[in-house]
Design brief:
single chain; 578 residues; alpha+beta; five-stranded mixed β-barrel; 16 strands; 17% strand
């Protein structure tokens, strides 16, 4: 009769626990190294812990645009609001969507909250301004001629080709091209000088005052440095539409002197990104309102007679030039801008043009201001609560499980390292900020993680009570404990996912942390707790059932060994068979 084959333990059994331990240790080292390489040794703190102002805005549809609330427009609004907040000189401000209709703006401490509320809560203005002069974005060196009200153009930078705009009017199809880094032009008789405007309602300025204003603007233009965030924020700040101004482009590589606004964003009826069927390139098509078409025809008709760069008009959003095409012929109701566009850039510019500025109007729902002192107190209270919870878990484990508590504590330490490093790395990666509800989620996770260890330990004890020795008990208990742990963690993760989806605001921090730690619980139990238990089962302290090991057969009420009882039964039954 052939000898029975020896059964093998389950995957990840007694033979190779070192592989699993090596894998999780490499992961912890890599995450810790990445945390320091990213210069993010601590998690980013939310407003309620670090101090600052949190503003929640709710999107509202504009009249005639019932389907305006969509992901594209919300993303466009986030980008514009983020640029406004950064224009205040704020560092590490967070602007993100929550749900379908909400945008949350978190502004750290040290910022004027009232000024921030005015910036993020109002719909910006979009203007079309004639370009009077243009230069490279850096400050003009001393001794270099600056633009003046009269005279010939004086070069200050090399010309570069950019976007091109074309359109239709009562005349044949007209064409216009954007110039990038172009020469600095002088103001001519046919070009509106600083202080002038075609708007009959605009205030008139005496010649002497106009000269003084022009001189001040030229000095500001010469000193303007668009390569810095502070310079771009200062350009065009607090300037009325009827006044000339200086402005930077979105890259900071060019700066402009711009005349008074002659067409506003409200004069644009619609705009969309499309593919030119002849060239196969992406373009932006614009349509103006009836009144806007007349204004646009007037400005492009005049600009078409000028020399570069004074034949350009700048599309200015929040004081920043997003495009500056130049005109060859008068345009009217329809126009298109073409050039080095891809689909994303064409659609972004179309969104800006179509909605004037923010694609949606927003209603301020909540404003929460937390001082740095209060934030520090809340963080300290959260840490104390976490320490108390951890201490209670440790006391329980040591009292009831004795030596097994050592394995549980090592597993909690591994889980803590993975949680901390991931929270630190997720801050710059996806904007995760540790707020007070997230701290609560981490505290709850201590109990969830400890519960997984308890399930496994109890299964091992059940096997020992059945009369098995420790090493077989560890392997036989694992499949049963594994199923229970997976079901329990799946329920916890499902609850966290539902909570994250259906809620907004800080509650999402609790849900996200709970879901993250639940996933890490599975990882730690599989790759750390089980292999460590397998290795320690080979030691004399645990395998001999030491009273302090937590696995003493006598204390557990173990039955006689199964192998011995089977041999006795076999010897007793054998004579009867004979």
């Amino acid at each position: 009769m052939a000898a029975p084959k020896k059964s093998r333990g389950p995957a990840g059994g007694q033979g190779r626990p070192g592989r699993s331990l090596a894998l999780i240790l490499i992961a912890m080292v890599a995450l810790t190294g990445g945390m320091f390489l990213a210069d993010q040794p601590t998690p980013r703190l939310g407003i309620d812990l670090a101090g600052g102002t949190s503003i929640t805005l709710k999107a509202e549809s504009q009249p005639g645009k019932p389907n305006a609330i969509n992901q594209t427009n919300m993303d466009t609004a986030v980008g514009i609001i983020e640029r406004r907040v950064n224009g205040l000189g704020v560092s590490e401000a967070e602007v993100q969507t929550q749900g379908r209709e909400n945008i949350v703006v978190n502004i750290p401490k040290g910022t004027n909250s009232q000024q921030a509320r005015e910036q993020v809560g109002t719909t910006a203005q979009l203007y079309f301004r004639p370009v009077l002069s243009m230069a490279a974005g850096g400050p003009t060196p001393k001794g270099t001629a600056s633009p003046s009200p009269s005279g010939s153009p004086k070069p200050s930078a090399s010309a570069a080709t950019g976007e091109k705009a074309s359109g239709s009017s009562a005349t044949p199809s007209a064409t216009a091209t954007t110039q990038g880094r172009a020469v600095t032009g002088a103001l001519t008789k046919d070009t509106p000088s600083p202080g002038a405007s075609d708007d009959p309602k605009a205030s008139t300025t005496p010649p002497a005052a106009a000269d003084q204003a022009g001189t001040a603007l030229e000095k500001k233009f010469a000193a303007l440095d668009c390569s810095t965030k502070a310079g771009r924020a200062a350009a065009g700040a607090n300037v009325k539409p009827t006044e000339p101004t200086v402005a930077c482009d979105s890259t900071g590589e060019a700066k402009y002197i711009l005349g008074p606004s002659e067409v506003s964003g409200t004069d644009v009826d619609s705009a969309k990104g499309a593919i030119n069927q002849q060239t196969g390139q992406w373009i932006v098509q614009m349509e103006f309102t009836k009144g806007g078409a007349k204004k646009f025809q007037k400005i492009t008709g005049r600009l078409a007679q000028q020399q570069t760069p004074q034949n350009q008009f700048a599309i200015v959003l929040d004081g920043e030039v997003v495009s500056a095409p130049y005109v060859r012929e008068a345009l009217s109701a329809n126009a298109e801008i073409s050039g080095s566009f891809d689909q994303q850039s064409a659609e972004d510019l179309a969104n800006v043009l179509s909605y004037g500025a923010l694609p949606l109007s927003f209603k301020e729902q909540t404003v929460t201001t937390v001082t740095a002192a209060l934030g520090g107190e809340q963080l300290q209270a959260g840490l104390i609560a976490g320490a108390i919870g951890l201490a209670l878990v440790v006391i329980y484990l040591v009292t009831y499980y004795r030596g097994l508590a050592f394995i549980a504590l090592l597993s909690l330490l591994a889980s803590g390292i993975l949680t901390y490093t991931l929270m630190s790395l997720l801050g710059p990666a996806i904007g995760f900020a540790l707020n007070l509800p997230a701290v609560c989620g981490a505290i709850v996770a201590i109990g969830i993680t400890a519960d997984s260890f308890i399930v496994y330990f109890e299964r091992i004890r059940d096997e020992i009570r059945e009369g098995r020795t420790l090493r077989p008990a560890v392997e036989r208990a694992w499949p049963r404990a594994r199923r229970t742990i997976l079901v329990s963690d799946f329920v916890s993760f499902l609850a966290a996912a539902v909570l994250f989806v259906v809620t907004v605001g800080k509650v999402q921090g609790f849900a996200f942390t709970l879901g993250l730690t639940t996933i890490l619980d599975v990882v730690v139990v599989y790759l750390f707790t089980k292999p460590v238990m397998t290795l320690l089962a080979r030691t004399k302290f645990f395998s001999s059932g030491h009273p302090w090991s937590g696995l003493d057969p006598k204390r557990l009420g173990a039955k006689p060994p199964l192998r011995r009882s089977r041999r006795v039964n076999a010897r007793t039954d054998h004579p009867k068979e004979a």
